Structure formats: C-alpha cells, structure tokens
Amino acid sequence: MTADERNVDLVAETMPASEGTPAYYAPLYRRELLESVLPFWLKYSKDEQHGGYFTCLGRDGKVYDTDKFMWLQGREVWCFSYMYNNVQKNDSWLNMALHGAEFMEKHGRDAEGNWYFSLTAEGKPLVQPYNIFSDCFAAMAFASLDKAIPADRYKEIAVTTFENIIRRQHNWKGIYNKAYPGTRPLKSFSLPMILCNLSLELEHIIGTARVNELAPFVISEVMDVFYKQEQGLILENVHPNGDFSNSFEGRLINPGHTIEAMWFIMDLGKRMNDAALIKKACDIMLHTLEYGWDKKYGGILYFMDVLGYPPQQLEWDQKLWWVHAEALVALAKGYQLTGDERCWKWFKKVHDYTWAHFRDEQYGEWFGYLNRQGEVLLDQKGGKWKGCFHIPRALYQVWKTLEGVDQLIS
C-alpha cells in the first residue's frame, strides 16, 4: 500500500459517517455496550460475599433485593463469556463469568439436574424448578464459558442440561403444571422459539449433525405450526395439533417474542443458505412490527389479542426494554440479509423511540418498563425479569450487523 493510499484510509476512518446510515449507527451501539451497559453490571451486580450476581438493582445500581433468579444468573454468565469470546479477551469479563458459573455449579440444580427458578443470596432453594428457561440459559451459559475456557465439566453441564430440555419439551412444567390435564391442552411458542438459538449456541459441543437434525423441527414448529398465514402472525399458544384455541391463551399475541424469534430464524436461514426462509422471516417480522406498533403513542405493545378482545394481561400496553432491543436486532439483520428498505426505515423509527425513552444517560444502562405514553414506569435497572442479557446482546448484534452493511442509505 502506498503512502497516499494509507492517507485515504486514515481520512475514511476519521471522517464522521452521514447521519442515518448504518456506518453512523454502528459506533453508537458499540459505545453504549462498552462504556455504559457492561460497566454498570460489572460495578454493581457481583455478590462478593456469597457468589453469583445481584440483579435487583435500582436506577443507581443499589441492591434492593438479594434473591437470585437462576435464569438471570445463567444469562449473565453467558453475556460476559460471550463478550470475552467475541469482543476482546478482557480478563474482568472472564472473571465475572467464572464468578457466576461457580455459584450456579454449587447451588443451581436439584437432585435430578433441573435448575431451580430462584435461590436465596446464600444459595438455598426458594422456588422449585418449574421453569425450563432456567435450564435453557444454564445450557447457554456453560456452552459459552466452555468456548472461553474449554473444560470437560462445562461441556458436561451444557450437554446434560440440553438433553434434559429435549426430554421435557412436551411437558416441561411437569408436576408444577397448574393446568388440569386433558381439558384444554395447549403448547407454547416459547420453547421452540428459544431452541432455534440454543442449538446454535451449543453447536461446538453437540456437533453440527445434531444441530442439522434439530433445525428442521424447530423451524417447522415456528413457521408452520404457530404461524397463522391468514393473520400473518404467530400465536403464543395452540392446540397440540396446531389448531387455534379461542381462549385467552389461544388468542394471545406477543409481538416481541415473534420479532425476536424471526432473527433467530434469519440466522438459521443464513446458516442453511435459504434465502426464501430469510425473506419469510423478515416479512413476518415486519408485519408483526406494524401490527404491534402503538399508533397513538409510539413504541411496541407488550401483549395483544389476535381477535381484538381485551388481553387478560393488565400490563398489555406497557413498553418493555427487551421487546424494543430485539426489534432493533431483527431489523438490522433483516436489512443486512435482504436489503429490504422497509427494514431500514423501521430501524431508524424504532431506534429513535428506544434511545429517547429507555436509555439512562445519568446513571447508565437502560430502564426496563415504560407506560403506554412512554414515561418511565419503574426506574430500576434489574429485577426478577430484567438482568444483564437483552440489552448487551442487542447492542453487540446491532453493532456487528451494521458494521457488515456496505451499502449506505439515507
């Protein structure tokens, strides 16, 4: 390379990108991840006395409850090991992941290997392992940690947990199921949705052949069984044969779940070189976003009823952090993979709403819960449901996705 060519490259690197282009947004997401969100959790979340993480953190990071929720413990182990694996070999991130993993190994499972829902600060069981998503995020956590520091015990935990999920998938609540058996059996979208992503997270352990074997099943469940072509929407619950249930649960739409699942499907479509699957996922994502967007106040509604009846969830009109974070990922990926201009227009619209309402410039990290009008409803940064996961993952995914978009549009 000549001196003139090096100078041209230097100028290109230092010139600010035009506002409204992918090159403009990518560094915003990078800075938010590295300078605001990850430092917040590193500073406030670690329990130095008993191990593991505090997730019930106030706006300023102060701990307001010490119970530990296993799915959030797993998510945080995954997050810091993932960042170590994919961003930089930062020892503070690796040590943070190891800190949580040690607590999980020591206290997290019952005698049958099922992961509890919650523990006391010291690690005593509080809530039984009724929720299979504790297992899902434990498997993700130890698979990601195994990439950082390969160890037989991490592989063993990831694999045995994954196989337990597969065994339990058709009755995953088991003895903790509140529904009376046989009257109105329904199956939930949540598990096949997460299996789309979980199988890829474990591929280096379970092998490509196993992922290839599982992928067609989860794709079919998501795109054929729960997706209803007549509405162009995905239902949260259906009868075991896929039929519609005209009930509160059967009519339920969760736009955020669908939008998140569609970027999982896009990732599988990219892996399989299936342009038709990617396009279908992108179209479903866009239609769901249009359907779920609050036309009066902006933002994405939390729950909806597919027939327009009042949803049973009283929080149906709240605007949640994870819904908007996942929408940004799906839109960035949709644009990168298809070039569909609708994705980019929606990305800018969702970005403007999200960054204006959820970010906390004073203390760092993001608020989780807004009312319908977009005002902060609860100002804590974490709790029983919000931890160190959706926001850092989304910031990373958008940053890296938009870095890979060559064509800049205004």
UniProtKB/TrEMBL annotation:
GO terms for biological process: carbohydrate metabolic process. It comes from the Bacteria. CDD domains: AGE. GO terms for molecular function: N-acylglucosamine 2-epimerase activity. Its EC number is 5.1.3.8. Keywords: Isomerase. The keyword Translocase does not apply. Gene3D superfamilies: 1.50.10.10. It is an enzyme of class 5 (isomerase). Belongs to the N-acylglucosamine 2-epimerase family. This is N-acylglucosamine 2-epimerase. The lineage of its organism: Bacteria, Pseudomonadati, Bacteroidota, Chitinophagia, Chitinophagales.
